[in-house]
Amino acid sequence: MRLLxxxxxxxxxxxxxxxxxxxxxxxxxxxxxxxxELAPLADGGEGTLAAVESAGGWERRTARAxxxxxxxxxxxxxxxxxxxxxAVIELAAASGLSRLAPGELDxxxxxxxxxxxxxxxxxxxxxxxxxxxxxxSATTDGGRGIVEALGASVSAADADxxxxxxxSLAGLDxxxxxxSLEVACDxxxxxxxxxxxxxxxxxxxxxxxxxxxxxxxxxxxxxxxxEAAAGMSARNVPGAxxxxxxxxxxxxxxxxxxxxxxxxxxxLVMESVGFAERLARADLVITGEGRIDRQTAFGKTALGVARxxxxxxxxxxxxxxxxxxxxxxxxAKLRATVIPVWERPVPVAEAMAAGAAPLVACGExxxxxxxxxxxxx
Length: 377
Description:
- The chain folds into two domains: 2-41 and 273-370, Rossmann fold; 48-266, Glycerate kinase, domain 2 (Alpha-Beta Complex).
- It is 35% helix and 19% strand.
- The strands form three sheets. A six-stranded mixed sheet has the order 3-4-5-6-9-10, sandwiched between helices. It has a five-stranded parallel sheet with strand order 2-1-11-12-13. It has a two-stranded antiparallel sheet with strand order 7-8.
- The relative contact order is 0.16.
- Strand 3 and strand 4 form a beta hairpin.
- The chain is an alpha/beta fold.
- It starts with a strand and ends in a 7-residue tail after the last helix.
């Protein structure tokens, strides 16, 4: 049996690398002679660098960058080892919620300058292609920090209270014109309004209802200014509201790059780890994520794996820390089988605190109950 294990992280508990290793450890207890290949995945948010790096062929770099509150830190990014022409950047590495303690959340003041600092570091390294994962941000600045870090000027009169700033793109780094940028974006929200960046995501970043209204007004003024400078309208493009408006800012700068695309995060990560080639060698693929629920149908990692597995004629099993009917149905349409990690209902807090042991047991159960013990087992 040739087995490919390709899960996402179990957010708040285990990285995708840890999940893959735990499932493999359990499987080997029953079928030790099987050939197992690990291909941890991510959706462009936190954990993307770890998943891509684990595939090999990447050099981890660090750069001086600002965290969401403007403090200078050393943040990681990846450079292709073979030719040094491709970079993978995780916005969350500099501008993510994970950079802040619970008491430090600042929905009004948090900025994406640090993500821009990482992009500049990649330009300094001479890259020609950048994969930018924008999940997990601590910010709702409309991508203003990135735009400023890349050389744009914004008038001192800011838009915090709805006053429109003046933006000039004349100082944008000219090296952008030689770079292809692919942004990993898994949401379809516009920038503004009831489905916008502030209304949908700012409460998760510490914003009160009054601050949500303030952030939406600020982003409306920012959108007026940036769209005027860029000569285009992007606020209503699906994905503009991603990462607190980073999607919007990158869409406005699209024609400043050699090529530009917003793409599903799991697709970009799969390409970066050579997933299709690995899948072609497998008899069975096991994927999974913390929750398999109605959101799974909107392009989460398990769905992406199941879709490719069906196309390749490879059997797919998806494990979930939590499993709901909508998620099961979405994967069943792709002929993927859903298996809960736990054999009994478990409170979320208990599941998250349990570590890797339940996944090891799940891997063992899969090898024993779904395929039967091997001759060596």
